[in-house]
Amino acid sequence: MSLSATSHRIPLNDGHSVPIIGLGTYSDPVPSPKGLCAEAVKVAIDTGYRHFDGAYIYKNEHEVGEAIREKIAEGKVKREDIFYCGKLWATHHVPDMVRPCLERTLKILKLDYVDLYIVEIPMAFKPGDEIYPKDENGKWLYHESNLCATWEALEACKDAGLVKSLGVSNFNRRQLELILNKPGLKHKPVSNQVECHPYFTQPKLLKFCQQHDIVIIAYSPLGTCRNPSWVNVYCPPLLKDAFLNSLGEKYNKTPAQIVLRFNIQRGVVVIPKSFNPERIKENFQIFDFSLTEEEMKNIEALNKNIRFVQMLMWSDHPEYPFHDEY
Ligand SMILES: NC(=O)c1ccc[n+]([C@@H]2O[C@H](COP(=O)([O-])OP(=O)(O)OC[C@H]3O[C@@H](n4cnc5c(N)ncnc54)[C@H](OP(=O)(O)O)[C@@H]3O)[C@@H](O)[C@H]2O)c1
């Protein structure tokens, strides 16, 4: 696959396309120190990034919007060059709440539409403004999920012009099939955003998605920030891997550049997060070399089938996606 930084976009099944690399904006801690996210987005735009992955629950969506609008005002980019992905949180799955939730994101961003809006997790929580609802004993408050009804409300948002493309995140095969087989389906999901990197290569889900024209968008493509409060640190640090480092030496690249190149070379979109100007630039320098077929196979063989992001606190939710094999 020949890939160029300026033009490489992957076609989506609805006629739109997505830039193969985007900037992740989930900061640890949430929210990020004031102004850091906006600066990162501006550096990223100057570097050549056009795709930004955000969410209401990251609490810095206003900074992403501010930076994008500033770069548009400067004449550096046009709105249509930018691809912004926002997310519908678990407390807003009830159909009547879907459009107001998207409208809230548009208001925060001060934009007229988002390019992609995705169901962030397939599990519904108690509807309302409490992002992580729990009872007085600390027990999670869930809500009965009806993913097809939520999807229909999203389809109406697309028809109203508030969003160009619709997708999902953290969906397993069964949950994707629920949507794909929904009677009267109007708009197919264009993408499934899931954890994906050399230690968790997702071979079966990737194949299933490719068969259904659904693009995989790899979150935590560098192996996360390894904060033990939400990351499974029993899985060794990805970027310390000896084989990945030896490939880095061969190509005069960092292990981060090797793992990002691995995914884009097999058609998987990557959204590495960095708020550090040097690393933002480093993560984008992945279009001037390619891995051999044998190296791609050897990287695939590093798969440990262990997630960094397990979301175990919700494993008793009826729609917890990670009990299934894929
Ligand atoms: N849909 C979901 O459920 C979901 C879940 C998780 C993440 N996401 C999305 O995916 C994005 C990326 O995932 P992630 O943030 O979990 O992890 P990630 O991108 O794999 O890793 C981010 C960590 O790597 C560091 N880093 C960045 N570039 C580096 C480099 N070149 N060398 C060494 N370290 C580097 C970052 O620190 P610095 O900032 O200091 O550079 C940060 O600590 C998120 O920001 C978010 O937008 C979505």
UniProtKB/TrEMBL annotation:
Q: Which Pfam family, an example, fits this chain?
A: Aldo_ket_red
Residues carrying the site annotation Lowers pKa of active site Tyr: K87
Keyword set, alphabetical order: NADP, Oxidoreductase
GO MF annotations in UniProt? Delta4-3-oxosteroid 5beta-reductase activity
Q: Which GO annotations describe the biological process of this protein?
A: bile acid biosynthetic process
**What positions does UniProt annotate as the active site of this protein?**
Y58 (proton donor)
Q: Which InterPro entries match?
A: AKR, AKR1D1, Aldo/ket_reductase_CS, NAD(P)_OxRdtase_dom_sf, NADP_OxRdtase_dom
Q: Where are the transmembrane segments?
A: none
Positions contributing to substrate binding? H143
Q: Which residues form the NADP-dependent oxidoreductase domain?
A: 21-303
Protein name per the record: 3-oxo-5-beta-steroid 4-dehydrogenase isoform X1
Origin species, per record, is Castor canadensis
